[in-house]
Amino acid sequence: MSSDGETTLEALARGELDAVCSVDLFNEGIDVPNIDRVVMLRPTESPVVFLQQLGRGLRRAGDKERLNVIDFVGNHGVFLDRVQLLVSLGPRPVSLREFLVERKAPELPAGCSVDVELEAIDMLRRLLPAGATEVERVYRELAEASGERPTAAELYRLGYRPGTLRAMHGSWFDFVAQEGHLSEAEQRVLERAGRWLRELETTEMSKSFKMVVLKTLLERDALATGLPQGELAQLGHEYLARVPELFRDIEGVRELPNPGEPDPEVWLSYWRKNPVRAWTGGGDPAWFQLEGDRLVSRLRAARPPSVRDRPARWTY
Questions:
Q1: What is the pLDDT of residues 254-276, one digit of tens each?
Q2: Would you say residue 279 lies in a domain?
Q3: What is the pTM of this model?
Q4: 83 vs 47, 91, 99, 152, 251, CA distance in Å?
């Protein structure tokens, strides 16, 4: 920033200036907590740029009660994106459909709320996006703004559903490949293990602990070498105990009268049925096999030699 820009911001912070007008200059990296009004004069469909601009006024200050935002350029479609972004900022994102149709309130920081007039809600419902095109658009905007490949989790937190891409592209990573965002090594892995990655996308999550097994193996860097079933069962229970949403899936199970502290042998027997059996015999092909008492991945044969010692960035 030039010295003129610094002087201007210092004067704004001291209250010597009432307003500053800029073009692509103060979008980020500016900290003037007393800003209590942001006026949007630049047309942009990018949620990233919008959030950067909005963020200039979100700093807290002692006598500042609220931030007023006036958007002069947002048309109906762009305003839909604004609402989408705001309701997705909490720890558990709420989609536009949940907010506008199901009237599900977003979880936001204390003192924050998103209120939309009934007339506007009716209009926005008619503009709700459908299908993969919206996900594609937001993915490309994020990639262009950040210079990095967006993850499916990022899109989900923004309220978009990456699963809508499957009908048109086959899978998340097939779409990423078509965008040209896979390295050569990752492209070869997709060609060899595409079915495995597609199964991960569609694996049932309710009362299914296959992903807990996978997470345990990855955390122990044991996807290729495997782990004994007893160790997997113990680590799996420790993980479930830390995640209330998952722990609820084993509450009320007849074989587990005390799910918080189950008998080790009873728990091992339960874990062998679900999820070990689901991974070793529930699919075609089965992606895991038992070697003695050790659960071992069969993916090793699917990894080309050139990438076996070089992990790819398989981030959803």
A1: 889 999 999 999 999 999 988 99
A2: yes
A3: 0.55
A4: 10, 16, 9, 20, 37
